[in-house]
Specification:
The protein has 6 helices and 28 strands. The chain is mainly beta. It has a single domain, classed as TolB, C-terminal domain (Neuraminidase).
């Protein structure tokens, strides 16, 4: 009996110690129950009858590792691909061959070609979970010159934001905290922690980018990303970099894992609003920059069937969304019962079961109406992060470890 008591006390001490050691960062807070509703009928009504990706996907350039973004040159003969091995790859779209093009800082992620310079690509660089990088490489917003392969950092630091009660905020431009990238940093600045995705204004003079969270050691996949998905914390920011002034200012603060981003331009040519995915909340938001709704946000679509990641437009103006992971009954149940999150947040993310199912969604140009949706069982490609419209096909970006090669599907009719 004495031995059993000693064993029970020892076990209790071990469990208590593990509980304390595995306590998440203070920024990870478990809130009230969150109840997700059914997938909107507007999506189910346009869902393909069969797995469109499984039946129509094509794969080429098999040397290409998993990647997050595809950017075309002006005449769409070459593609520049931000891959998880830390390189930009160049793909000859005629010969379907791929080669390493330039070694980027950390892992290059979201990328866009400059609207006002065909030779320039803007991209985000961040840590990939579980990978080691040279200590001198920094998270940031960068540009690359396709002709010279020169890489230039644009934003490495951002302004320290005022502490708030956690409520989501969209700033009016004149009221937004800002940082001049050309001046000496001080206590009003901090290193950019996570640059995930970006879009560029129509005139090429402003870059908007997302920072899903900024505590601990943020990275793409695993770690803090897993904890944000479980806690649904409001730790994310949206930033704007002005090419003409060198000033970085905050657009939005305290959002839940802002990820994909798309600039909407008004009839007057000004940046009117931003479409932003809150990936782990399964919804798409609109943040107003100008007009009577400036400094407001609204939900465009919610209760999506998967985690919306990157956003892009095709030549007809339709919006394409990569849905990284599918929503499940298990996820819905976890968010209904907050007490279980305190346990899950202390477990390694690798212990959670991961489905290979993924999907893509297309919306009308105003983002209000779904026009196509298809789920995919993961038999061809996993973890679709972005759908990139090309001239003759849709390119599927995937960060799934088992996916190699350049993936395309025809435009659905």
């Amino acid at each position: 009996m004495r031995i059993l008591k000693i064993f029970a006390v020892t076990l209790g001490i071990i469990i208590a110690a593990l509980w304390v050691i595995s306590t998440p960062h203070k920024a990870v807070k478990v809130g009230k129950p969150v109840i997700f509703g059914p997938v909107p009928s507007s999506i189910t009504d346009v869902t393909a009858g069969a797995d469109y990706i499984a039946t129509s996907a094509r794969k080429s350039a098999m040397d290409l590792p998993p990647y997050d973004e595809v950017v075309f040159n002006a005449d769409e003969t070459l593609a520049y691909v931000s891959a998880i091995d830390g390189w930009f790859w160049e793909v000859d779209l005629a010969s379907k061959t791929a080669r390493r093009f330039v070694d980027a800082p950390l892992m290059p992620a979201g990328a866009r070609r400059a609207p006002d310079d065909d030779n320039v690509i803007y991209f985000c660089a961040s840590y990939l979970y579980g990978e080691d990088y040279p200590s001198a490489e920094r998270v940031g917003l960068y540009s690359i010159d396709i002709q010279t392969k020169a890489i230039v950092p644009l934003v490495l630091d951002v302004p320290v934001l005022p502490k708030t009660d956690g409520e989501a905020i969209v700033y009016r431009d004149g009221d937004a905290p800002r940082l001049d990238q050309n001046k000496t940093r001080g206590s009003t600045a901090r290193p950019l922690a996570f640059c995930n995705d970006l879009d560029v204004s129509a005139d090429g003079r402003r870059i908007y980018f997302t920072e899903p969270f900024a505590y601990g050691t943020p990275s793409m996949g695993g770690g803090g990303t897993f904890r944000e998905a479980i806690s649904l914390g409001q730790n994310g920011q949206v930033w704007r970099y002005d090419m003409d002034t060198g000033i970085t200012s905050v657009v939005a603060q305290n959002f839940t894992f802002p990820d994909g981003i798309l600039v909407e331009t008004g009839e007057d040519g000004r940046d009117k609003s931003l479409l932003v995915t809150e990936t782990v909340k399964f919804r798409l938001l609109r943040l107003y920059l100008t007009g009577p709704k400036a400094d407001q946000s609204e939900t465009v679509l919610e209760n999506l069937p998967g985690m919306p990641d990157g956003l892009d437009r095709d030549a007809q103006g339709r919006i394409w969304i990569g849905m990284l992971k599918q929503r499940s009954a298990t996820i819905d149940k976890i968010h209904k019962t907050p007490w279980i999150k305190h346990i899950l947040l202390r477990l390694p993310s690798g212990l959670m079961p991961v489905s290979k199912e993924t999907s893509i969604l297309a919306l009308s140009p105003d983002a209000g109406t779904p026009v196509f949706y298809t789920g995919h069982d993961g038999s061809v490609v996993t973890d679709i992060s972005v759908v990139i419209p090309g001239r003759d096909a849709l390119y599927l970006a995937t960060v799934g470890d088992e996916s190699h090669g350049l993936y395309t599907v025809p435009y659905p009719h």
